Amino acid sequence: MPGYTPFLKFKQNEISAMAEFANARDDDVIPFFDVPRPKDMSAVDILDRLRIGVKQIEKQWSKSSFYIDNFDLDDSIQLNGAPQYQYILDAVKHLNAIPVVALNRDASHNGAALSFAKNSGRELAIRLTQEDIESYKLTKPSIDALWLQIENIEPQEIHLIVDFRVISSDLEKLKGVALNFITAFSGDFFVNKIVFAGSSIPPVITSILSTNSSVSIERQEWHLWKRIEGLLPESVAPKCGFGDYGLVSPDYSDLELEVWLVQGVAAPKVFYTYDTKHFVVRGGAFKTHPSGYGQYFDIADALVAKPFFRSFTYSFGEEYIFERSVLAPVRAKRGGSPSSWLKAALVTHITFVVDSL
């Protein structure tokens, strides 16, 4: 059965989290990176995001495989005069990138992905959303047309990504939709790997908790996967695997972050994954809280006191949290930043999910 596929943003801290995990573990985890939506949807900002991400990949993930897509972007925006996805793929052509085709994208998107897969001789991924899988009968003609193009390039492998994004619908209904689609699809098309992915994290954190509070939320994507996994046809089950969006909402964009910073209400928030849940803790606004960024020390204390907190030896993330807690022999001098905490928490999440599969 395929391993875990974390869906991450093509950003420094999330790439670094994957590298920290890989440095400690031998598990075969292939991340799926989406180039993040910048605060201004302009070519200049997209190019800047891409440049930073590529530099980080070259530094920490140069020999390992990863998927890359531009789902979050307006792909009609050209980059330096070239079609957007073509430019993105050209920027990572010296790396082990896996291109992604999809339905209902800009006309140039699939052509760029197919050309890249043909020239690289590598794998090719097909990304379908919940809307795409709701009716196999309606979607099949589009898949048929795409499949003819795929067969012409003879990729090394074909991977199907079923992306539910933020899961808000009834799990039983989604399970039925997914199983019906996969059963019908597998009867007509062959793929080497199938990934079911989703998230329970909304784009705006205030919808699940206020400042200076904490809450545990169920990981609906995990529950959905377990329901699907147990009912997959025997011919399909061995090639199916689980994916999620780590600790960042699929609908995250730098625009929301910019608004929070301008309004002066940005506050520390930390996710910690355990059992079938995310524990989420949020402090007060950095700008007005007496402790400011020092609130991360209090968050570390709260986490290490929880019965579900794992040993500081479990991963880079647990060690990072422990070192900022009252339990550390010598407490870290600085509490950290949103970026460093996301990296640490993401390492704990990836490690825990891999161990849970």
Overall description:
The strands form 2 sheets. The protein has a 9-stranded parallel beta sheet. Strands 9-12-11 form a 3-stranded antiparallel beta sheet. It is globular, with a radius of gyration of 20 Å. With 357 residues, it is of the alpha/beta class. The protein has helices at residues 12-24, 43-60, 84-91, 107-120, 130-133, 136-153, 171-188, 220-229, 254-263, 295-304, 316-323, 338-356; strands at 5-9, 32-34, 66-69, 97-98, 100-102, 124-129, 158-166, 193-199, 213-218, 240-244, 269-274, 277-282. The chain has 2 domains: 5-255, Alpha-Beta Barrel (TIM Barrel); 262-355, no CATH class. It has 12 helices and 12 strands.
* Helical run tally: 12
Domain count: the total is 2
CATH topology of the largest domain: TIM Barrel
**Order of strands, widest sheet:** 4-3-2-1-10-8-7-6-5
Which structural category do the helix and sheet elements fall into?
A: alpha/beta
Q: Which architecture of the largest domain does the CATH hierarchy give at level 2?
A: Alpha-Beta Barrel
Residues in helices, as a percent range? 40-55%
Mean pLDDT: 94
**Alpha-carbon Rg, integer:** 20 Å
Largest sheet: 9 strands, parallel
Distance between the termini: 10 Å
CA-based shape: globular
What share of the residues does DSSP label as strand, in percent? 15-25%
**H/E element sequence:** EHEHEHEEHEHHEHEEHEHEEHHH
CATH class of the largest domain: Alpha Beta
Low-confidence stretches: 258-263
> How many strands?
12
